[in-house]
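User: Could you go from structure to sequence for me? I need the amino acid at each position, not a summary. Structure tokens:
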């Protein structure tokens, strides 16, 4: 089962722009992520590691599609999206995935209590508009949900880490900036420092 590719396109850009005009802080971008950025996000996930892959803020689904192309079966995907229209689209386009119309912060706390086996959390949430403490709490909730090798993946348009690096016990690594995207963005991966090695050779500054 795959994402319906014909459905992804110009209509998504207009839909995204309209959503951004109505709620700029929550939508976080004027356009969906481009192919290169979506692939860079998916590249940080190892499809061979068993367990659910949770996507936070999937929007219209470009990263979802890249994850499926990378080899993550749709049945292993849990998509948590706050926008009802995006949820409806995701259900149409990716019928195998579980789509949760919810606030990602509350959902992660709830899932922690459920003890779901999770290998990676891939987030496109607009974290930079939130207080550093809130961002860090989300990261800790996600890392606690996963085993020692679990990865939290986040992109940002900013030049620094979207999560405070003073945090103890967390290792961060950044992939090279994706310039061919509106706007150019960088993918960061966060892991427990006591977990296995990171994907990227360049480390956080
Ligand atoms: C920057 S867009 C990224 C969308 C998509 N992943 C992409 O790359 O094009 C952020 C997405 O996060 C969603 N979002 C923002 N805050 C959220 C929250 N607290 N819980 C769940 N989704 C949220 C927005 O509705 C939007 O779809």
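Assistant: Here is the amino acid at each position, in order:
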């Amino acid at each position: 089962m795959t994402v319906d590719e014909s459905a992804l396109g110009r209509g998504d850009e207009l839909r995204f722009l309209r959503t951004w005009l109505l709620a700029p802080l929550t939508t976080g971008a004027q356009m969906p992520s481009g192919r290169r950025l979506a692939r860079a996000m998916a590249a940080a996930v190892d499809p061979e590691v068993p367990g659910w892959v949770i996507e936070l803020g999937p929007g219209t689904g470009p990263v979802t599609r890249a994850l499926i192309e990378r080899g993550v079966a749709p049945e292993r995907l849990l998509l948590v999206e706050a926008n009802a229209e995006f949820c409806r689209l995701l259900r149409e386009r990716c019928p195998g995935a579980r789509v949760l119309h919810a606030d990602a912060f509350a959902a992660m706390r709830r899932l922690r209590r459920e003890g779901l086996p999770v290998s990676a959390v891939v987030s496109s949430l607009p974290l930079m508009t939130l207080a550093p403490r809130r961002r860090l709490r989300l990261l800790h909730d996600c890392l606690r949900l996963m085993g020692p090798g679990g990865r939290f993946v986040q992109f940002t348009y900013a030049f620094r880490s979207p999560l405070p690096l003073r945090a103890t016990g967390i290792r961060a690594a950044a992939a090279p900036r994706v310039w061919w995207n509106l706007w150019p963005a960088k993918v960061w991966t966060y892991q427990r420092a006591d977990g296995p090695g990171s994907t990227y050779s360049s480390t956080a500054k």
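One structural detail worth keeping in mind: Residues 151 and 191 are 5 Å apart (CA to CA).
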